[in-house]
Structures are given as C-alpha cells and as structure tokens.
Amino acid sequence: MYRSRDVSVVDVLFAASSFDDLVTQLSLMERLGNSDVDTVKSIAAYRQDIRDRRVKLDADKKAAAKLVAEAAAQKAEVVALENRLESMTAGIKADIRRLQEQEAARARAAAQAAAANTGTGSGGGGGTVVDPGGSGHSAVVAIAQRYLGVPYVYGGASPSGFDCSGLAMY
User: Fold this and answer.
1) CA proximity to 131, closest of 157, 112, 145, 147
2) pLDDT tens profile 83-108
3) Taking Cα atoms as reference points, which of 93, 81, 170 lies closest to residue 162?
4) Considering the entire predicted model, what is its pTM?
5) How far, in Å, CA of 49 to CA of 146, rounded?
C-alpha cells in the first residue's frame, strides 16, 4: 500500500483480512496522512525562513555597500589632505631655501664690499661702510629657522601657528 498513491479507504476495507488488520491499516493511513501534512508545513516554514533570510541578506548587503562608500569617501578626503599638506610643506621648504640663498648672496656681497673697501684704502678718511641689511638678515633667518615644523595656521602670528605674513610680522 505504501507504494501506491491511489489507495482509498474502500481498498483498505476489502484488503483487510480481519478487524484488527483493518484497524491497523486505517491507523497507518492516518499516520501517513499526518506525516504528509507535517512535511508540507515544514516545507512552507523553510520557504518562509529562506525568504526572511534573503530580505535580511539584501539589507546587510546594502548596509555593507554604504559603509564601503563612506570609507572610500573618507579615504579620498584623507588623501586630499595629505596632498595639500605635502604641497604646503614643499612651499614652505622652497621659501626657506630662497631666504637662505638670499641671505647667502647678501653675505657674499657684504664680504666683497668689505674686501673692496679695505683693499683700496687711500687714507681718505677710511670710513666703514655699513650694509643696511647686514647681520639683521641672518638674525631673521635664524629666528625663522627656529620655527620650522610649526603648523601652518591661516592668519596665525604666534609660535603656536603661523602663516606667511604672520611669520614676517612676528
């Protein structure tokens, strides 16, 4: 009987050899029917569970994509800030080199002028020529070099942070 799907109660009645056999066969049919109902309910529950998990998975995918996009935006912002800082650092270093070169050129010119004045002394008063920018420039450069590494602050004019004109005013 379990191999054939088309067994009816009438077939069981005629196939039973005794009353006990009939009761046993009917009980078996009822259990098989209940088993089929339980199986169908389990399948429906599993399908609903799968649908629920797919919905949660889709929501998790969207949340993960949002987090990845936010991380990428933050990374781009950090890279832009790094580039800006590198550019500012390069500019400051170039300014320092330029100032050092100017100071060295002034020192050479002052040394040449001093050598020219002392070498051609004709006894005509022998006054000393003073370079108007003399040693003051080297002092300015020395002060500026003390503040290397101080952060750039727009409009800053103190040792906690300078901009170009703030350093010159200080």
Assistant:
1) 112
2) 999 999 999 999 999 999 999 999 99
3) 170
4) 0.38
5) 70
